[in-house]
Amino acid sequence: MAVNLTVPEAGALAPVAGVELGIAEAGIRKSQRKDLLVIRLRAGGRVAGVFTQNRMCAAPVIVTREHLALSADGKVRALVVNTGNANAGTGDAGMADARRTCADLATLLKCDPAQILPFSTGVIMEPLPVERISAGLPACLADLRANNWLNAALAIMTTDTLPKAASRQVMIGTHKITITGIAKGAGMIHPNMATMLGYIATDAVVSLPLLQTMVAHAANKSFNAITVDGDTSTNDSFMLIASGAAPMPEIVDGGSPQYTALRDAVAEVAGELACAIVRDGEGATKFITLQIDGGASEGECRKVGFAIGHSPLVKTAFFASDPNLGRILAAIGYAGIDDLDVSRLDLYLDDVLVARGGGRNPAYQEADGQRVMKQSEITVRVVLNRGAHAVTMWTCDLSHDYVSINADYRS
Questions:
Q1: Is residue 129 part of a domain?
Q2: Cβ distance 239 to 283 under 8 Å?
Q3: Residue 117, helix vs strand vs coil
């Protein structure tokens, strides 16, 4: 039931020099399903990432952080991703399983286990079937190809209805640089980050400190600006890979136009993937853009956006196409801005001015609100009139199917 989301075309996903992807059907939870992915990097490839803020974070998140800390200059040889099992809430055994996965892949690739980064997604608090993963790794390596991005997107899905992938090319000086990425996520979506895995790769040559700054910037503009249901997952990871294969000078200056061009292109790819996650929100029928303008700070704009985007009353009104827009005003009011002057607040639904100066616009007609609410894509614009800051965020409605999907998740 994805909202205006289609399967990416494999030919539109540009290969990234220095990055190969291979998948396998390892039978981790279900048979005859792509559920194991290896991403292999050329020697010298760098990786930076941001991770869930959930204190009950999964074993692979802990191990990946450890390995990145041990890695010389962020240099990594491979990432391994399984779906069907989150390896979260699994204690010491889960840690041992995550480390064994790294060790087994390192043996096959003839590298140090600390050069492998593990990731898992799926059901929480069940033992990882590590034997199946280990048995599936040779098939992943046999399948390694540079043009395997669409299959890779399929191999990391859980409750997603469609794979999510995006690609861009940008000129950095005289060099054409490629950025291609995949993500998974549909439910348990809430920032810091969402229940999502995201992998974006570029062939650019970037210093590790700038790569880390770049991935944090991209996350803030994309995955940390979406919400489906307000639940923060145990396994969220967003990784930015720079293979360094492009014949270009290393980007070492964060103030340079080269850095800005690459940063913005990476953020565009991340934004497209993040919006695809919301469009594929479990049971979603509406894709909602939240534009919060006129804030005294970006932080208070985000508070307002998340108050609206998290509200079950707001989200169910959108599902019903019911212009019960007082629910949005109520959410703005409890967003946590202590000195908010509601008499200066304006609220728009697409082009319709619903509330002016904190109260119903005298010219507003419910038929106008109904017209917009029936659309599959809607923009809610809040003007706080407190300053010059603004943010754009994305959410979806809350439908009967959301309950059904999550009630049946383990069956």
A1: yes
A2: no
A3: strand
Tens-level pLDDT at each residue, the chain (411 residues) = 678 999 999 999 999 999 999 999 999 999 999 999 999 999 999 999 999 877 788 999 999 999 999 987 889 999 999 999 999 999 999 999 999 999 999 999 999 999 999 999 988 899 999 999 999 999 999 999 999 999 999 999 988 889 999 999 999 999 999 999 999 986 544 444 335 899 999 999 999 999 999 999 999 999 888 887 655 667 889 999 999 999 999 999 999 999 999 999 999 999 999 999 999 877 789 999 999 999 999 999 999 999 999 899 999 999 999 999 999 999 999 999 999 999 999 999 999 999 999 999 999 999 999 999 999 999 999 999 999 999 999 999 988 876 666 666 555
Confirm whether pTM is higher than 0.85.
yes
Residue 3 resides in a domain: no
Task: Quote the Cα angle for 23-43-181, to 5°.
Answer: 45
Please give the full DSSP string across 76-98, using - where no structure is assigned.
Answer: -SEEEEEEEE---S-HHHHHHHH
Cα–Cα distances (Å) from 407 to 33, 282, 311, 403, 410, in that order, read 22, 12, 20, 6, 8
177 located within any domain: yes
Which of 61, 23, 22, 24 is CA-nearest to residue 41?
A: 22
CB-based contact 394:225 (threshold 8 Å): yes
| 161 included as an active-site residue | no
**181, β-bridge pairs:** 166, 200
Among 83, 180, 195, 227, which one carries the catalytic annotation? Answer: 195
Q: Could you tell me the residue range of the domain that residue 121 belongs to?
A: 10-279
Q: The domain spanning residue 377 has which CATH number?
A: 3.10.20.340
CA–CA distance from 281 to each of 141, 284, 366 (Å)? 32, 5, 28
CB 103 within 8 A of CB 113: yes
Same domain for 96 and 161? yes
